[in-house]
Structures are given as structure tokens and as C-alpha cells.
Amino acid sequence: AADPRGASSSSGVVVQVREKKGPLRAAIPYMPFPVAVICLFLNTFVPGLGTFVSAFTVLCGARTDLPDRHVCCVFWLNIAAALIQVLTAIVMVGWVMSIFWGMDMVILASYKEQGIPQQL
């Protein structure tokens, strides 16, 4: 059966979209799911605290999307993100950023648990 638009029904195009992450976003560690949920909870009620805690998981071996960076550099990037969240929480920007950061931690942890490749 021919397609009225002139395209064959078996032809298809596969498009792959890859998210380009900045250094702060790429420094979010892939943590175990329960730890990520705790960090989300902390970030929700005390902006930046969950991000601060997640920085120490990098020192404990958690992987990130910055494999070419030294562990200490990734640790300090996470500390910087926590400080940004704390300092801008006064104008609500840091609080919202902190919650989204925690949600990203949980999403990355779920990818890790499901075995989905890190580069999505």
C-alpha cells in the first residue's frame, strides 16, 4: 500500500538529541537513589544543604558527567553550586534552583539504578 504523501511506510529517520550541560550541571553526582532523595529533601527545606552533602559523595567515589576533571575540582564545583543556592535563596531564586538541583539528583540516581547510560 502506497502512502498518500509519497513516503514509503518503511522509511524512518532516527534523531538523537544530546543535552549539553554546563560545568555546574555536569558536576551533579550519580548517587544511590535513597541518598539522592535525602538530598532533595534537604534542598527543599534548607536551600543548598543537599547540594553541599552531594559534594561529599563525589569524594566517596560517585561518578559525574565530568570524567576528565579531577575529583577535587568536581567537589569544589558542587560546593560553588551550594553557595550560589544559599546566597540567592534570599530572593527565592536559590530556593527554586535548589529544588530543581535536588530533582536532577533523583533523576540521575534513577538512571543509575535502571542502568541507563549517563549521556542522555
TrEMBL record:
Protein name: Stum, mechanosensory transduction mediator homolog
Topology with respect to the bilayer: Multi-pass membrane protein
Main location: membrane
Transmembrane segments: 33-62, 74-101
Organism per entry: Saimiri boliviensis boliviensis (Bolivian squirrel monkey)
Keywords associated with the record: Membrane, Transmembrane, Transmembrane helix
Subcellular location: Membrane
GO cellular component: membrane
UniProt xrefs under InterPro entries: SPEC3/Stum
